[in-house]
Amino acid sequence: MDLFLGKVLVKNNRDRDELDTEREIISKLQNRILMLFFGSWDSEPCQDFAPTLKDFYKRLTDSFYMERPSQLILIYVSLDSTEEQQDKLLKKLPKWSLFLHHDDPYKQELGMRFQVQELPTVVVLRPDCSVLLPNAVTEICALGPDCFRQWQEAAEVIDRNFEMNVEFDNEKMRSVTDPIRKLKYKVEKKKRRWWHLGGWGGGRHHGDDTDDQDQDQDEELQEQNGDQNDNRDFKGPWA
């Protein structure tokens, strides 16, 4: 958490809301595992990895999958040469993730501090900002959300009773209407996407942002809910 005190973190939403006070930073990052995603739009592996990272993060922080959002924060630290390139990759990331401004020199300091040598890199930090994993990309791709339990135990994060939502015939439900609510959510989501895609077999034209806008609205709603709930000589891509 101290890693970002005195810095400005930006929400990856339409309004680009800033967290720039000590109180806001502490409230957002306290007792949470941090994932620092070092990437660049120019890197094809980063473009390929971004959807996987997005799905990983959603399944751990979206209330549809979790009884409560996990104590996990994703921060994008870009190596993009222009702000436009940074924005392109941000579009592939969840709307409730955070990032540093493109012209923030602190990004280079972070890259040097954590000795980032390849892209993509996801540095996993404990709440005290000590390194839990220097690069979790392979683990995320291989294990998916299951690896978070291991992180949580290793980081000794105070558990707030997070439980994966399961199908109707498995674990306990939130209420007797829980199966109906879940089914309604799935059906309505499919209907909405079917309508915009011109039918179940319809193709999507390149540049059609209608479905993305619906997804953005879902993610922005989740973001609102989530808010309620010295290696100076090191040489790497940051030099």
Describe the structure.
With 239 residues, the protein is α/β, with parallel strands linked by helices. Helix content is 41%, strand content 13%. The chain is built from 8 helices and 7 strands; from the N terminus they run ββαβαβαβαββαααα. The chain has helices spanning 22-29, 44-61, 83-90, 106-113, 137-143, 147-155, 178-197, 210-228, and strands at residues 9-11, 18-19, 33-39, 72-78, 98-100, 121-125, 131-133. The protein has a 7-stranded mixed sheet with strand order 2-1-5-4-3-6-7, with helices on both faces. A hairpin with a 6-residue loop joins strand 1 and strand 2 (18-19). The relative contact order is 0.16.
Parts with pLDDT < 50 across at least 5 consecutive residues:
161-177, 184-208, 228-234
Task: Give the fraction of residues assigned to helices.
Answer: 40-55%
Class based on secondary structure composition and strand pairing:
alpha/beta
Ends distance: 25 Å
Please identify the oligomeric state: single chain
The side-by-side strand order for the widest beta sheet comes to 2-1-5-4-3-6-7
Count the E strands.
7
- Outline type: globular
Q: Give the number of helices.
A: 8
Mean pLDDT, all residues = 78
In N-to-C order, the SSE pattern is: EEHEHEHEHEEHHHH
- In terms of DSSP E residues, the strand content is 5-15%
Using the CA coordinates, give the radius of gyration.
Answer: 19 Å
Largest sheet: 7 strands, mixed
